[in-house]
Amino acid sequence: MQLWCVEHQVEQTYPWLRSHSTAMKVRSSVKRMCDGCKVVRRRRKVYVICDRSPKHKQRQGFHTSALAAESQEGAIAAIASPNASFQAALKQLQFPGLAPFKAFRDAAIEIPKLC
């Protein structure tokens, strides 16, 4: 199987992983950069979409809200997929959370004496 076939299969299975031509800039205030830019409101967010230059793509919001939006989309997709429990376990391993970290940090470390 060629690499293109594998990438195409992954894009069809997981559409949110699809690579875009340019990344969207997340800014606290967005504005038009040229005459081809259009300001659009979708799902309570303000976007700037440009026909002439894809580098002008912008979304209004905080950086943390961008991560939260991605995690919500991922959670919705994980519920719809047949291996949701596997994906949830994998996410827990990658991002263990604050409680396991505090337990690890506060654990008593015993250093053996060499003499």
From TrEMBL:
GO BP term (any one): translation
Matches recorded under InterPro entries: Ribosomal_bL36, Ribosomal_bL36_sp, Ribosomal_LSU_bL36
Keywords annotated in UniProt: Ribonucleoprotein, Ribosomal protein
Keyword Endoplasmic reticulum attributed: no
GO cellular component assignments: ribonucleoprotein complex; ribosome
Highest taxon in the source lineage: Eukaryota
KW Plastid (keyword) present: no
Family recorded in the similarity comment: Belongs to the bacterial ribosomal protein bL36 family.
Protein name: Ribosomal protein
Species annotation: Phytophthora rubi
Lineage, highest ranks first: Eukaryota, Sar, Stramenopiles, Oomycota, Peronosporomycetes
